[in-house]
Amino acid sequence: MTRADLSKDPQAVAAMFDNVAEGYDRTNAVATMGLEKHYWRPETFKEIAPRKGMKILDLAAGTGASSVNLREAGAEVVSCDFSVGMLRVGKRRHPELDLVAGDALRLPFADETFDVVTISWALRNVNDVAAALQEMLRVTRPGGRLVVLEQSHPTWKPFRVVYLEYMMRAVPAVAKVVSTNPEAYEYLAESTRAWLPQEPLARAIEGAGWTRVQWRNLTGGLVAIHRAVKAG
């Protein structure tokens, strides 16, 4: 299995991420020209606002790179992903992390466990977004928060056209140089192009039962951070 398709079959998507696990973080850094590491992730960290004693579910955590800073801020972090290959790489790199294999549609956690649930670059990869958002709501405590970092739609149309061309052509080309499985990045580019714009995603989050849904565009809407609260 080298890549998935837009049917988002869970086994195909998991196998695809297993195949790219070793070089995934490096390829993302190159493909995003450093924006993910130096801007988008830090802004998401600020939105989460981790502190000592806070219990955070880092969903689709991959190799756990995003979980490290949350843990260093004093939060109790559970890093969950359905790609065992990603988790194996993460365990080798960050043995201190609490890594758990789990499916976003059937989270292996009790009701009302976490203060914050966060998911980055992965909501578009589940085959039932509404069900995943409801599962996140289930495991969040009343008054707890959701923070979603995801590819989005640039707000200026000419920029959006250029960006989509970059995603469809340049990202797979970059992946051929730095990734062991460039075909997987064709799927990632396609899934970005097919993904929900900011407002429809906000409505989907609200439809799943979350309240006070808002979003903030980064880099002209290349990505967006959506946030919401579970009613107390």
Automatic annotation (TrEMBL):
<dbReference type="GO" id="GO:0032259">
    <property type="term" value="P:methylation"/>
</dbReference>
<dbReference type="InterPro" id="IPR023576">
    <property type="entry name" value="UbiE/COQ5_MeTrFase_CS"/>
</dbReference>
<keyword id="KW-0489">Methyltransferase</keyword>
<feature type="binding site">
    <location>
        <position position="120"/>
    </location>
    <ligand>
        <name>S-adenosyl-L-methionine</name>
    </ligand>
</feature>
<keyword id="KW-0474">Menaquinone biosynthesis</keyword>
<keyword id="KW-0808">Transferase</keyword>
<comment type="similarity">
    <text>Belongs to the class I-like SAM-binding methyltransferase superfamily. MenG/UbiE family.</text>
</comment>
<dbReference type="InterPro" id="IPR004033">
    <property type="entry name" value="UbiE/COQ5_MeTrFase"/>
</dbReference>
<protein>
    <recommendedName>
        <fullName>Demethylmenaquinone methyltransferase</fullName>
        <ecNumber>2.1.1.163</ecNumber>
    </recommendedName>
</protein>
<comment type="pathway">
    <text>Quinol/quinone metabolism; menaquinone biosynthesis; menaquinol from 1,4-dihydroxy-2-naphthoate: step 2/2.</text>
</comment>
<dbReference type="GO" id="GO:0043770">
    <property type="term" value="F:demethylmenaquinone methyltransferase activity"/>
</dbReference>
<keyword id="KW-0949">S-adenosyl-L-methionine</keyword>
<comment type="function">
    <text>Methyltransferase required for the conversion of demethylmenaquinol (DMKH2) to menaquinol (MKH2).</text>
</comment>
<dbReference type="Pfam" id="PF01209">
    <property type="entry name" value="Ubie_methyltran"/>
</dbReference>
<feature type="binding site">
    <location>
        <begin position="103"/>
        <end position="104"/>
    </location>
    <ligand>
        <name>S-adenosyl-L-methionine</name>
    </ligand>
</feature>
<dbReference type="GO" id="GO:0009234">
    <property type="term" value="P:menaquinone biosynthetic process"/>
</dbReference>
<dbReference type="InterPro" id="IPR029063">
    <property type="entry name" value="SAM-dependent_MTases_sf"/>
</dbReference>
<feature type="binding site">
    <location>
        <position position="63"/>
    </location>
    <ligand>
        <name>S-adenosyl-L-methionine</name>
    </ligand>
</feature>
<feature type="binding site">
    <location>
        <position position="81"/>
    </location>
    <ligand>
        <name>S-adenosyl-L-methionine</name>
    </ligand>
</feature>
